[in-house]
Amino acid sequence: FLWTIQKPSMAFFDLTTLSLGDVVVSGKGSKSAPIQSMSTPAVALLDPMRVVFEPSAFGNEDATRVNIVFHPSPQLLAGIEAFDEWVLATLAADSVRFFGRAKSAEQLRDAYVPAAKHSDKYPATFKAKMNLQDPNVVKVWDAEKRPRAQPQQWKDCLVVPRIRLRGLYFMGASFGPVLELTDAQIVEEQTAECPF
Question: DSSP state, 150?
């Protein structure tokens, strides 16, 4: 691995290398469009970030594919916001292919579920998918780059995330990016306090 905690900061994905493929429909009827980086999977190794909540899937405690939410640094947040604008501009430039009629970036914005989530009450966050079981279970590493078990409590862990940008999903009137946590280096872990 080429990981190091003191690595140069990475803003997010290099937008100049990204391309958006055609919409494909799965056997179950879900629609998505792949995003690649110079014809290879788009993968980014990001700076350490805190996990905001315990990973979960809304309304499904037994889910094996869950959401994990991070607090990005201001630099990373700017990169994520730039990516969100790239998605809107790219789709608007070829909206007939994706939506069947011409639409501007502003018209698309209302239906877009951005990678960066803003709130009046909390610092900005961004969300990725994470698989807790095979296939494609998230690989977890310790600070010395050795494989380890998943933390018992993800919330408040300091994690170096490796994120794969799978593409865009289209569901009903809404659409947004599919970001997946493929690897997590646990730099700092919260441990339960002994109650005795």
Answer: P
